[in-house]
Hints:
- The protein contains 20 helices and four strands.
- It is mainly α.
- α4 packs parallel to α6, α4 (about 105-130) packs across α14 and α5 (about 135-150) runs antiparallel to α14 (about 360-375).
- It is globular and about 80 Å long.
Amino acid sequence: MWYIIHGNHFEYYRMKGLFIHSMMSSSKKAGTYFYCALTAFIVMLICTRSSPLYAFNNWDDSNSYFTVGKSIFKGLVPYRDLFDQKGMMLYAMYGIASLLSYKTFAGVFVIETIAAAAVGLAIYRIYSLYVRPEISIVLMPITCACIYSTRSFWWGGSAEEMMMPLFMWGLYLSMRYFKEEYPREISYKTLLIGGILAGCVLNIKFNSLGFFFAWMVMILIADLTAKNLLISQRLKMCVIHGCVFLIGMLMATIPWIIYFALNGALYDWFHVYIYLNIFVYSEKLPLMQRIYNMCKIIYNHMFSNPYCGFMALIGGISFMVMKSRWIEKLNVIMLAGFTALIIFIGGVELQYYSLPLWTFAVLGGIAIGRIVEYLIDNSIYKKRACKESTDDENTTPVSIRWHVIRITAGICAVVIAGIISYTTSMNSFFMKYQRDDIWVYHFTDIIENSGIENPTLINMGCFDAGLYTTCGIVPTCRFFQTQTIKISDVGEVQDDFIVNGKTDFVLARDYTPDYIDVHYELIAHESWEQSGYDCDFYLYQLAR
Length: 544
């Protein structure tokens, strides 16, 4: 009887303890998510021109994505009806953003913030592999600020920015496996998630797939070096793991295959997104010249982004010398090397291309975290706190004190992240501009006051400069903007629109289009400084 009563009491308290532990664990997890979201909101509020603190995101690339994205929900099909060269998943994200706000970048800001929060959470998880969580939670906001305030971030909304959560979570999964699970076989769940991440990169900007190529190669190396298995068993494991990874990639691609098949545009998708990007867009150079240019570009980008460049370089070196298994070191070398190789082997040097490289800035954070952890463990205050907790039966005051210190440190880290963002970001100066200061809104007022219902527009001599966004115009020309890719169709189609007066308005930058005087008259002209050089925008209206 005594055993039954006390046994029931024991079971009651055991279950109660498990319940309390579960509640505390859930609360801690929710707190971490909130902390990452808060960090992302503050950093993105400052670093991206899509933020409410800025009058407008006047980056032509972001406006181009926005125009294609919103046109999807108006029945137009990318590549077939509108020519642009990024992946369908990027346009879908911008399309969703347009549903939140059709004429502003408010919706894009929401998506950028969600992406940054996912990056922050992955950074926290990576740091927690190597240092205690309280140090990770302090390092995470500072690392986010360093990454998003680089010149590589540019003006906000790039394809590279949208892929950052994919790279950071891919890095976490890979580092976790080789640190905590290898030489055990990798789980199918991790492989499938890795494949899905790779599939998303494939459908945003496929020339960034070098990271996930190396990711899968490292899994195959892990399989081939597995102990106590015959070579036939190892090869069989390689094939199975490769297939699971490819299934994940296919899962991320099937929705777009279905979409283009239903719209009869599979050929257009492949021709524009794959063929033209590979065989027309990149430079034609000898292999050695490509390698030399690639090294030169990476060198320049590291010095253009000194914080992240230094963290990645020094962090990588420290990771090589720190106590860890050889395969962990090889994993980091392979991931970083192939990321840089595939991105820059084409010879295109644009600032925002290097953003994926700063995924490896976390290596510098790991080095800093380990140093801080060592100093804390050997500090006088830590020893005194341990002595107090040993001498005093009631350790609650010490626990509360350390809890307060952790919270205070976390708040300070977010504040520091905000300061780094504001003082380092190349965009913060643009906060001084108001709506009435920007030429695109002057032209918008002219078009909206023209009395023309559902006006049409074409961009000549420039990418999408923002009028499609601010006026809410859906393009009627496949080449709605002038492209940098060297194909003759662009000029021929645009000239046909001008010669035959097929559009209500024409926006030209820095030149007068041929035959423009036949059907159009100049109604506005403004000069503007953009990306370090002066340019002139001309607005023409169809003469009635």
